């Protein structure tokens, strides 16, 4: 899970979830609590789904 | 005639094998083991005035005491140079040779030389500071190693210019030195371009770092039975930073038991020097989402969150260290039977 | 275009009654030259001195180095700058080969730029081998910084023309002919040779950080195409004062080694079709535009291979690698010339920016490499500048007056047009 | 950035502070200016000019002025972030053995301000 996904790709990461921002990759302090929670839950969910998905090459989830 | 002091371990010092690896350092005013063969290589110009012998285990477990003894002998004997090894692929012997040569060079300013197989862990401990002659991986390579070491030792003693690693037979030190080339830069550039245009071999003067491609791991078949670990390069650590992980250019990583907590908030904060810490300090789970992994665990989506959380800082950290951290952490997780990892970076 | 360069070998410079060349000795009438330069009311005073190869002389702070020349036919001097605008690149020029005008003048207190004529320091600058007429310019008081810089720059160029005039009727020792026709003609002549362009990047960022093409500040241009002859005939000049080791002095434009070495291969292994000057701007939008435009010119002209040279260190590294990436992606084989900063011990990552496309790079050496230069018998310029040069760390001035400085203070040491011989190798 | 006036200058240069109205003043050194700018870029401000100068000499400057967009967006520009990060690494590496050239502070302040003026002029040729 990274914000600068090009760097992740350049070091060989295969399953990538793009995140929100560098100081708060898995979060967003500009949102209200409920919205931030939903966003975060969804992102981590996507990361888990990525781990359970067969891939051939670098893939963003 | 230059005077050389030689360092070997218990085995090459002809005291004994693994059972003698615990012996304390001792000094003999004669050439023993490889010191004899080395002496032949420098005959007429330098002589070995004595041999220091120390057990590999003793050196690595009592480093300070061992070095104190060794340094005292060197101060008394006043050699012009200290040579250690070659250690071939013997790891503890390599670490000892590295320890002795670096200490002698840094504290006494004497020229030093050792020899090792390139994969010996001792290489990384000293190659940027001292010359390490490249050897084969076992003592069978002794007869090839000693002439190279002898030749390089004489050059170092005389203060002669040391050529490129491949020419002199030492392992590259990773230092880029400025030298005067035979052709001016533009001529070298034109030659390089012409070589490229005619598909001939060429060598760049400034190699770019190479990044690895990795074959994707197979998918996790059943998430609900999987153990998932959380790892971050976002510098999230327990309050007080107990392991003193660096805020930039990290030299180490840490692991912390998170089996008893539901979120990082409260107990953790960021020491990362590469971003504005305000948002992460408010809620460290914004960087490493332990809270949500725990939720998914409770919901049964995943089997288990691994009991340890791994962390380091990514900013300014050398590629070499990053590879080392990744390998070490990966090994632990694999041995612990972890099925998948969420790695977050800032 | 066809340019004939007549070289008059200069074996010494002396002050004398007339400004002339006799038997390879260049004599300069000091008073006449000073009066000529002082015709500009903004020039308050001028001091002239001579520095010869091997003398224990240190020149500091050097602003620019210029080769004295006189155009015999086909255009005039520094067109668009000291002269009205004329087309350069054709005709005949006489060159006082082996002589150089070196201007010193501290426009700002932190200027560096040292030329040592002897010893260890001499190894690192190409201008230790030229006979240098040093022109120390003191401008009128109260000039604002831009005017100050312009005054010193113009005085240097005028000085080179004044001295160059001595070559008009002097005995010619050697004639070199530079002759490349239009792209169509050359391609008919050499249909099987790969087409090659040279991309020369220029710092284009404001005061003390400028370059000029026919007098046009390169900040204001889109990347532009030149015939190689135009640059070696004086179309490009330097307004750059603070990148001593890797700036391109006017002398280095007049004798651009990348152009000359490509010329030497023209018709043999390559078809050298031109020079593109690319400004190194400060804004990211500007950088993207320049880099896109440069790559587009290379593609449009059908280049198979390109050499790209940088000027400076820091933000220009971004432009260099962006251009490289665009060219390689377009299938154009590219060689970069740059310098590197790998720290005092040479152990740091040499470039901050990297791109995997930069597979062929020539290094002009490590700008942080520390050299120890012996005490000079004579310092031309400003002693105080030595303090600046040596400032910033403990133990830089040795007890015997030797000076430890980083290569970045030495004029032309790590030239990124490949004018000099330094490089860095991994040990 | 949409309009020419939508920019702010992150600076520690007193001359710039006097001269421009849209200044985010940093009470610190060159590195502090880089860090402040980095934090702004991380939070969605556009980086307008390159954070580093064009020569080693300018690394020794005690003063630096960097232009960013005054408004932030949700979209962080990866390229801008990369440029910021590599500039900070580059700056630290270069200053490992050197100190800012304090003796010539006044001249650096003038040149930094002049170079900023050039950047603003350059910027105006893009945004209007």
Question: Which characteristics define this entry?
Answer:
heterotetramer; B: 346 residues; alpha/beta; Rossmann fold; 2 domains; 6-stranded mixed β-sheet; 4-stranded mixed β-sheet; 11 helices; 13 strands; globular; D: 128 residues; alpha+beta; 4 strands; 47% helix
Unreliable runs of chain C, pLDDT <50, ≥5 residues? none
> What structural class results from the helix and strand content of chain C?
alpha/beta
Number of strands of chain C: 26
Shape of chain D: globular
What does this structure look like?
The complex is a heterotetramer of chains A (61), B (346), C (427) and D (128). With 61 residues, chain A is mainly alpha-helical. Chain A has one domain (5-60). Chain A is 41% helix and 7% strand. Chain A has helices spanning 5-10, 33-51; strands at 15-16, 59-60. In chain A, helix 2 (33-51) links the parallel strand 1 (15-16) and strand 2. Chain A is flat and about 40 Å long. Chain A starts with a helix and ends with a strand. With 346 residues, chain B is α/β, with parallel strands linked by helices. Chain B has two domains: 2-168, Rossmann fold, CATH 3.40.50; 223-344, no CATH class. Chain B is 34% helix and 19% strand. Chain B contains eleven helices and 13 strands. The relative contact order of chain B is 0.09. The model of chain B has no long low-confidence stretch (mean pLDDT 93). By secondary structure, chain C is α/β, with parallel strands linked by helices. Chain C has one domain. Chain C has ten helices and 26 strands. With 128 residues, chain D is α+β, with helices and mostly antiparallel strands. Chain D has one domain (7-124). A four-stranded mixed sheet of chain D has the order 2-1-4-3. In chain D, helix 2 (30-42) packs antiparallel against helix 4 (78-94). The N and C termini of chain D lie close together (10 Å). The mean pLDDT of chain D is 90. Chains C and D meet through helix 8 of C and helix 3, helix 4 and helix 5 of D.
Task: Please summarize what this structure is.
Chain C has helices at 30-37, 119-123, 145-164, 183-189, 228-232, 250-254, 257-265, 284-300, 316-329, 383-390; strands at 2-9, 12-15, 20-22, 25-28, 43-51, 57-60, 62-66, 69-73, 91-97, 99-104, 115-116, 131-139, 174-179, 195-203, 209-213, 216-217, 224-226, 236-240, 271-280, 305-309, 333-340, 361-366, 370-373, 378-381, 403-406, 422-426. Chain C is an alpha/beta fold and 427 residues long.
